[in-house]
Amino acid sequence: MTMTPSIDAYRHVRDATLRLVDGLADADLTPQSADFASPGKWHLAHTTWVFEQFLLAEHGRGYRRFDERFGFLFNSYYNAVGARHERPRRGVLTRPTLEQVLAYRAHVDHAMADLLGTRLPPEVGDLIELGLHHEQQHQELILTDLLHLFAQNPLRPAVRRAHVGPEPDEPAALRWVQFDGGNVQVGHKGPGFAFDNESPRHVVALQSFRLASRAVTNREWLQFIEDGGYADPALWLSDGWDTVQAQRWQAPLYWEQNEDGERWQMTLAGLEPLALDDPVVHVSFFEADAYARWAGKRLPTEFEWEFAARGLPVEGNFVEFGADRPRRALDRPGLQQMFGDVWEWTASPYVAYPGFRTAPGAVGEYNGKFMNGQYVLRGGSCASPRSHLRASYRNFFQPGQRWQFSGLRLAEDA
Length: 414
Description:
The chain is α+β, with helices and mostly antiparallel strands. The chain has two domains: about 5-150, Four Helix Bundle (Hemerythrin (Met), subunit A) (Up-down Bundle), CATH 1.20.120; about 175-414, paralog of FGE (formylglycine-generating enzyme), CATH 3.90.1580. Helices cover about 30% and strands about 10% of the residues. The protein has helices spanning about 5-20, 25-30, 40-60, 70-75, 100-115, 120-150, 220-225, 240-245, 285-295, 300-310; strands spanning about 175-180, 180-185, 200-205, 210, 255, 265, 270-275, 345-350, 375-380, 395, 405, 410-414. It has a four-stranded mixed β-sheet with strand order 10-9-8-11. Strands 1-4-12 form a three-stranded antiparallel β-sheet, with helices on one face. Strands 5-6-7 form a three-stranded antiparallel β-sheet. Strand 5 and strand 6 form a beta hairpin. The mean pLDDT is about 95.
């Protein structure tokens, strides 16, 4: 149970979403570049529909829906709520216009301000908190989906301009940090928000292990490419090798090479020279696993990662930092980049913790029904809001997906 968010906390999250699309036109926010992505305008409306559907429709005082048809258009995957527009066809929704979607957001925000001004039972406060963290997930999706869309444009336009300071003078050396094994508790603990898939807290047995002090860099990934990593089937899981062949992967997503052999990378700020000492990003689980095997190492399990991150401050390169991409680590002892910069693939399949039970009703469809055929990522990225993250947070994607800000950190047995 969490405390009911204040109206200021609600507005902070909702306003942050709008700042991500500030200056973009209806034409930028309507198209859909792939089945796995969604238009920016759809994200703006869907996150609003969640508050309308799960809170205002039942708890709003005299609330009237903005448009009864929006439930069909902006329901994502909640079967218990009803029928919905097909996901691969979200890009054909030229109407409602961006102006209408923004009016929809204002309508719901006004009603939510009224609701937050009343005394609410704890379960309603929990739903509001869930809705805000859900919106923060979509804030990152807005950026990743816009980056994928803009990368298809030969002009390579910028989603937003970067606002960051100078890079560290020296690239960070790769060090190894050792952790002793034993029976350890993992999962969410204590007050504060957490998703249902972070619980129940339980005991796992860990062998002693070592974790790389920072994420794998573009420079190191280039060595993998030059050594024929994408052409050696011995490095790849069977489905991964099939995917490499079918998709003709030769480098991470958004890498380009000009006629002079120079490497470039599409970022939120447009096409930029490949920064060799920045973390490699936009790689799939299949690629991360193959790289680890090539390097003679492995990916950490999600429980090793969580154990190592426990007690570390949630500090790093987040969306609030204003960077257009992951940035190089500082050259100092200890673990770097555990939070922010890139989501880190783990070797763990996304499955339920012992004792996990889905919540009743449509809210129970949020995480539990996706526990099949996906892998866990940890730590957040340069597109994640800082307040959204914690050591127990479990992100998950299918192993062939790489349009997210996903990278890797190596591990080894001690």
